[in-house]
Write a structure and sequence with these properties.
Layout: H1 2-24, H2 30-42, E1 43-44, E2 66-68, E3 80-84, E4 91-92, E5 106-108, E6 113-114, E7 130-132, E8 154-156, E9 163-164, E10 178-180, E11 185-188, E12 202-204, E13 209-210, E14 226-228, E15 251-253, E16 260-262, E17 274-276, E18 281-284, E19 297-299, E20 304-307, E21 321-323, E22 328-334, H3 336-339, E23 349-352, E24 357-362, E25 371-374, E26 403-405, E27 424-425, E28 435-436, E29 439-445, H4 457-468, E30 475-483, E31 487-494, H5 508-519, E32 532-538, H6 557-605, E33 612-613, H7 616-622, E34 631-634, E35 638-644, E36 650-656, H8 664-676, E37 685-689, E38 696-700, H9 707-711, H10 715-720
Parallel strand pairs: 3-5, 4-6, 5-7, 7-8, 8-10, 9-11, 10-12, 11-13, 12-14, 14-15, 15-17, 16-18, 17-19, 18-20, 19-21, 20-22, 21-23, 22-24, 23-25, 33-37
Antiparallel strand pairs: 1-4, 2-3, 26-30, 27-28, 29-31, 29-32, 30-31, 34-35, 35-36, 36-38, 37-38
Helix pairs in contact: 1-6
């Protein structure tokens, strides 16, 4: 009975241990956990951002940068949905084991220092929607296997050292909308197969080593908004005439591409706002047909264009920049170029006509203050009869300032803000002198469709705040700066909404929401402002406790409850099965004890002269607890041991195996039969043991050989060898 209680106690302890393991153990798919550990070993993490990747479960212990589905998969595991490791100062390589994240939708390693090549195994993650590897030091070629990512929406590898061709297999990226491959060292021709990407919006291939001809087939892309191929080498290629027929294209930039031939007619592009064909070898006249009235920028500088400036360029009310410098243009400068400009307060027009053969003026040279006219290097600058001509014939003329700020001063008491480093006045707030702690954001427009920002600041602020579901006054653009590309970098501040509570800070939930909107590209689309990227989302002061790199609320309570219930059910089922097993074992044990007691009682009745009844303890002591050192033989029935009885008699003790045990009646009949046999060639039976579930016979020991040696060969033994000694 004691052994039963002890076994059952062990069972309960095991059950509770199992329950504890299920409660605290692994809930994420084991293959994905293995993947993450392998990824960590392949990375160099000097800032120890991934230090918690050794503790607990990835999904439930909030590993840095690991975001999971908020539901259990059909296989009973949680799965990783996003791996967001942006701007963590990581180096090392991308592990091929990333393919084990078979449910991954977002892989974000932007703005680190990763080296090595892009693993071809990433092409196995068919669920991938965002592949973001820009701003690293990756090298090698693009794996053709990435063309298997049929669900991919955004593919960014810009600002790396990728070489080799663009795989033709990328034509299978049927859902991709953004291909940002700029600023690498890609070579070869642009595959004509990319014309199959009917959903693509932005194709950025600038600043590579691409060559060959421009594929005319790209003009058939029905949804393309931005085509940017600057700084490649398409020497000998013409601009296909079909490029004038892009139905939805907003920006066409082919600067510094070694293009030759004539300018196509772009009048068939109703949405065109930005056209840059500068620094090529284009020849012939500028087409006289009218361009889109929405156009802001025309840059045809540094070519070999000739003849006169067409009158149609005077009918562009939103024009901000017209650069025709360093060409072979002749004829007159048209005063109509600046007369029809939109005289909005913030409008500005830059007319760069330097270094041509313009010799006369058509009209009056009186451009308004917001027009910058540059005529140096033309014969007209030698015509002193034109009033004020010298003002526009300086060596370089006036250029635009690349930086600007929307800051202004406010007359509010300094003591109203608790800490000047973290809190400040929102100058746009409807509540005067409202002091709050803003969120500070670094943001960049990668390919804007304008050259001068001030006329569009209000429009941009409305675009951002409406996308974020915020009031217009909550956004303040602190400063902005044009960078090479051209790209527009800016620093913005987001202020809390003024409401009844007059809260000076955002709550944690709102901070996470805003960061998620920026980092997941959830803004409503804007062809005019083009693609954007989040550079930083600074947290300090009252926001320093917020951690963007962990799943904010973890797995939902419902999922955890389901996991816990499942664990409990599993343990209960295990406990029920194990309890049934223990009870059966206990009953069997009790039956054996009862059987032994019955056997012992029956054997007591058996009284045979000269035959002793031994206890199990006596025979165990005689054989040194049935030690192998006392073993002298074995057979189908059991084993034979040499033993020394309590009276110093040497005996051969035959111990039956468990499977050889016979019934009580049969065993007693055998003992009675053996007790009647007496012969000089037969060993004599000394006694027996029938307790503790054992059946043993004790024979006279015969020296100079085993019992088998002495008994073999005799007919009598063969007849008596009922139990195969």
């Amino acid at each position: 009975m004691v052994s039963f209680h002890r076994a059952y106690g062990y069972l309960l302890v095991a059950a509770f241990c199992c329950l504890a393991l299920l409660a605290d153990g692994q809930r994420t798919d084991p293959s994905e956990v293995y993947c993450l550990r392998t990824v960590k070993r392949s990375l160099i993490d000097p800032m120890k951002n991934l230090r918690n990747w050794k503790k607990g479960d990835p999904c439930t212990a909030n590993w840095t940068g690991v975001f999971c589905f908020d539901e259990i998969g059909t296989d009973g595991y949680l799965h990783i949905r996003q791996l967001r490791l942006m701007n963590m100062n990581l180096s090392g390589i991308l592990a091929p084991e990333l393919r084990k994240l078979s449910h991954l939708e977002i892989l974000n390693f932007m703005w680190n220092s990763l080296t090595g090549s892009i693993p071809k195994e990433l092409g196995e993650i068919s669920s991938m929607k965002l592949l973001l590897l820009n701003g690293n030091q990756l090298s090698g070629s693009l794996p053709s296997e990435l063309g298997y990512l049929s669900n991919l929406n955004r593919f960014q590898i810009d600002e790396n050292n990728i070489t080799g061709p663009i795989p033709k297999s990328f034509s299978h990226l049927i859902n991709v909308k953004h291909l940002h491959f700029n600023n690498n060292s890609l070579s070869g021709e642009i595959p004509v197969e990319l014309a199959n990407l009917t959903n693509i919006l932005h194709l950025l291939l600038d600043s590579n080593n691409l060559s060959g001809i421009l594929p005319p087939q790209l003009s058939a892309l029905p949804n393309l908004r931005i085509l940017q191929l600057d700084n490649n080498n398409f020497r000998g290629s013409l601009i296909p005439a079909t490029y004038g027929n892009f139905s939805k294209l907003v920006k066409l930039s082919l600067r510094n591409c070694s293009l030759e031939g004539a300018l196509p007619d772009f009048s068939g592009m109703p949405n065109l706002t930005y056209l840059d064909l500068s620094r090529n070898e284009l020849t012939g006249p500028i087409p006289p047909s009218k361009l889109s009235r929405a156009i802001t920028t025309i840059d045809l500088s540094d070519n070999k264009l000739n003849l006169s400036i067409p009158e149609s360029l005077s009918e562009l009310p939103l024009l901000q920049k017209l650069s025709l410098k360093n060409n072979l243009l002749s004829g007159s400068v048209l005063d109509s170029l600046w007369q029809k400009i939109s005289f909005h307060t913030n409008s500005r027009l830059k007319l760069d006509l330097r270094n041509n053969s313009l010799s006369s003026l058509q009209g009056v040279l009186n451009p308004p203050a917001n027009v910058t006219l540059m005529l140096d290097g033309n014969p007209i600058c030698k015509n002193r009869s034109i009033s004020n001509i010298a003002l526009f014939c300086g060596s370089d003329g006036e250029d635009w300032i690349s930086t600007n700020s929307t800051n202004s001063s406010v007359d509010c008491p300094a003591q109203a803000c608790p800490t000047s480093d973290f809190y400040e006045y929102n100058l746009a707030s409807p509540l005067r002198c409202f002091c709050a702690a803003p969120l500070r954001i670094g943001y960049r427009l990668k390919s804007p469709s304008f050259s001068y920002f001030p006329p569009y600041i209000i429009q941009f602020e409305d675009y951002v705040t409406s996308s974020l579901d915020m009031a217009l006054y909550q956004l303040w653009i602190d400063s902005y700066q044009w960078e090479e590309g051209p790209r527009l970098r800016m620093y913005m501040k987001l202020f809390p909404r003024v409401n009844e509570s007059y809260s000076r800070t955002f709550n944690e939930s709102e901070v996470h929401r805003l960061r998620g909107m920026f980092s997941s590209w959830k803004f409503r689309g804007s062809d005019f402002f083009g693609p954007y990227e989040l550079l930083n989302f600074t947290l300090f002061g009252p926001y320093s406790y917020v951690d963007f790199n962990t799943q904010r609320d973890g797995i939902s309570r419902g999922v955890l409850a389901a996991i816990t219930v499942g664990a409990v059910v599993t343990v209960v089922a295990f406990l029920a099965i194990a309890t049934t097993w223990v009870i059966r074992r206990h009953r069997r044990h009790q039956h054996e004890i009862s059987k032994r007691r019955s056997s012992h009682h029956s054997s007591k009745v058996l009284k045979i002269d000269g035959i002793r009844e031994f206890s199990f303890r006596e025979l165990a002591r005689a054989t040194d607890n049935f030690s192998d050192s006392t073993l002298i033989g074995s057979g189908g029935y059991g084993k034979v041991y040499r033993g020394t009885l309590s009276d110093k008699t040497i005996a051969a003790i035959k111990r039956a195996d468990e499977e050889s045990l016979q019934g009580e009646k049969e065993f007693l009949n055998e003992i009675e039969l053996l007790s009647r046999l007496h012969h000089r060639n037969l060993v004599s039976l000394i006694g027996y043991c029938d307790e503790e579930g054992e059946q043993m016979l004790v024979y006279e020991f015969m020296p100079n050989g085993t019992l088998r040696d002495w008994l073999s060969g005799t007919k009598v033994l063969r007849l008596l060898k009922l139990r195969r000694l």
